[in-house]
Specification:
Layout lengths: L4 E5 L5 H11 L3 E5 L9 H6 L7 E4 L2 E4 L1 H11 L12 H25 L14 H12 L12 H15 L7 H11 L2 H13 L10 H4 L1
Helix pairs in contact: 1-3, 1-8, 4-6, 6-7
């Protein structure tokens, strides 16, 4: 019997991405909602994730945090679903590249820019804004898959990030970005995950975010 999957999340957080990914696997799981404030900083939760943030995934004795890592980990649990390309292939290289590109330069740049704390381009891991956005735009322009000719966890993560930052108005709505996000937003797993999280929002609000932003 496979160890149970437990997702620690909040319906108005990046945990929405992790739930979408779990839904893509088809594996049974339990979602435990961790509210903002004291619950997310409680000793019990900090023992699981010392960062005091969600999402986090428990799988037996394994603990995985950070959305890109959670997506990659889950993809490996269901090789029959082919959510990750085979090792030692060019597709695998592209898959890893775009998972880490979004988790690293892309998110770091947008959050730094939004807070007015951009570092000099030569010193920052995200480099110049123009180069970063053009690199991503070229990657997704006219495509629905970034690693081969089928859907992978990299497509999910890129689409989820693009969709979120477009929705909150923090990312320039270039046609290629909009098209890639929309190409995956209506996958059955994405819709199921969204419905589950949206139903929880009235009981678990985010004090720093209006409900319309998450949905």
């Amino acid at each position: 019997m496979q160890d149970p999957l437990i997702l620690y999340t909040h319906p108005m957080s990046r945990g929405r991405v992790a739930r979408w990914m779990i839904e893509e696997t088809g594996l049974p799981y339990e979602a435990r909602i961790i509210d903002y404030g004291a619950p997310m900083k409680s000793p019990d939760y900090l023992a699981l994730n010392p960062m005091g943030k969600v999402p986090a995934l428990r799988h037996g004795e394994a603990i995985v945090t950070e959305n890109a890592a959670i997506c990659a980990y889950l993809a490996e649990l269901v090789p029959e679903r082919r959510l990750a390309p085979p090792e030692d292939t060019p597709e695998r290289a592209a898959y890893l590249r775009w998972l880490f590109f979004m988790a690293g330069p892309f998110e770091a740049f947008l959050t730094a820019k939004d807070s007015g704390a951009l570092a000099p381009a030569f010193a920052a891991g995200y480099g110049e804004e123009r180069a970063l956005l053009e690199t991503l735009e070229r990657a997704v322009d006219g495509r629905t898959h970034l690693a081969g000719d089928r859907f992978t966890a990299a497509d999910l993560y890129v689409a989820a990030c693009l969709g979120y930052y477009l929705r909150i108005g923090k990312l320039e709505p270039r046609p290629a970005f909009v098209a890639f996000a929309q190409a995956h937003a209506h996958r059955p797993a994405a819709l199921r995950a969204g419905e589950l999280d949206n139903a929880l929002i009235p009981r678990h609000p985010n004090p720093n975010m209006p409900a319309s932003v998450a949905a």
